[in-house]
Amino acid sequence: MLTIRRMREEDLDEVMEMEGVAFSSPWTRGMYLHEIEKRDSCYLVARRDGTLAGYGGTLLILDEAHVMTLAVREDLRRRGLGARLLLELLDYSRDMGARFLTLEVRGSNREAIELYKRFGFQIMGERRNYYVDNMENALIMWTEDVTAPEYRLLLDEMRGRYGHACS
Ligand SMILES: CC(C)(COP(=O)(O)OP(=O)(O)OC[C@H]1O[C@@H](n2cnc3c(N)ncnc32)[C@H](O)[C@@H]1OP(=O)(O)O)[C@@H](O)C(=O)NCCC(=O)NCCS
């Protein structure tokens, strides 16, 4: 059974394990602790039969929700779980007042870019040499207004496709 809920301090040991596998510049436990305590942040974990399957987080700045992280356990990828987490993050962020979502992603991260495009994110800019580990460029992606009726239609479609993924 899959459950998605807010990240808590007790999740962080498992988050740290997955973080080291999923990212070449992993965040530290302290960084996560700091992030999840912020009033305008929303960090979620997905647990499958009790064990960590994925996580993601946003930080709201004015009416923009910045997608800070998103990761799915390697052996559970490509089953719709990343999309399901993103759906939940979108719902939470909209409830908190977000009208737009934005993020930075490595130019080489094809899986993530495809996932975000599916949710209507478009590449609107680039930050050169943004990632210090390999001086890779970051693509800056933005959604349209997520409160607009057109975007709600897209979300309904995504919910139909991924809303029950990995249950
Ligand atoms: C990016 C990531 C979170 C995607 O998670 P996931 O659970 O495998 O993704 P999903 O199964 O929900 O995929 C949803 C859609 O995204 C796209 N997608 C995902 N993985 C893809 C891949 N390997 N190739 C092409 N498209 C892909 C597809 O459109 C897919 O829909 P479909 O399977 O119906 O065709 C996962 O690959 C990951 O944890 N990567 C390492 C961490 C990372 O880079 N995070 C992003 C930081 S910005």
Provide a brief overview of the structure.
The chain has helices at residues 12-22, 29-36, 81-95, 110-118, 149-162, and strands at residues 2-6, 41-48, 51-61, 64-72, 100-106, 122-131, 136-142. The chain is an alpha+beta fold and 167 residues long.
Bound molecules: coenzyme A
Strand content: 25-35%
Q: What spatial order of strands do you see in the largest sheet?
A: 1-2-3-4-5-7-6
CATH topology: Aminopeptidase
Describe the biggest sheet?
A: 7 strands, mixed
Helix coverage percent of residues? 25-40%
Named CATH architecture = 3-Layer(aba) Sandwich
The overall pLDDT average reads 97
* Alpha-carbon Rg, integer: 15 Å
N- to C-terminal distance: 5 Å
Shape: globular
Structural class: alpha+beta
General description of the model:
- With 167 residues, this protein is an alpha+beta fold.
- The protein is built from five helices and seven strands.
- The chain has a seven-stranded mixed sheet with strand order 1-2-3-4-5-7-6, sandwiched between helices.
- α3 packs antiparallel against α5.
- The model has no long low-confidence stretch (mean pLDDT 97).
- The site of coenzyme A has 19 residues, from β4, α3 and α4.
